[in-house]
């Protein structure tokens, strides 16, 4: 699934594809916001670790879990 994270005071956003489900990502972010933790950790589909400070979190957009089609549709 595609994940897009907006950082405050930054013109760029973090965009990556993750093997985590939408509910897992939502739980990680909600828990971090409710518990006042300093950062969130997310892992992309290639194993890269993303650590984002919660204080600078602008928004998190979680894409659909559907797979992409390859080929022609008749």
What topology does this entry show?
Layout: E1 2-7, E2 13-17, H1 22-34, E3 39-43, E4 49-53, E5 57-62
Antiparallel strand pairs: 1-2, 1-5, 3-4
Protein name: DUF3107 domain-containing protein
InterPro entries: DUF3107 (IPR021456)
Organism: Conyzicola lurida
* Helix-strand makeup class: alpha+beta
SSE arrangement, N to C:
EEHEEE
Distance between the termini: 26 Å
Average predicted local confidence, pLDDT: 87
Organism: Conyzicola lurida
Protein name: DUF3107 domain-containing protein
Pfam family, one: DUF3107
Report on this structure.
- With 74 residues, the chain is α+β, with helices and mostly antiparallel strands.
- It has one domain (2-62).
- The chain has one helix and five strands, in the order ββαβββ.
- The strands form two sheets. It has a three-stranded antiparallel beta sheet with strand order 2-1-5, with helices on one face. Strands 3-4 form a two-stranded antiparallel sheet.
- The radius of gyration is 14 Å and the shape is elongated.
- It starts with a strand and ends in a 12-residue tail after the last strand.
- It comes from Conyzicola lurida.
- InterPro entries: DUF3107 (IPR021456).
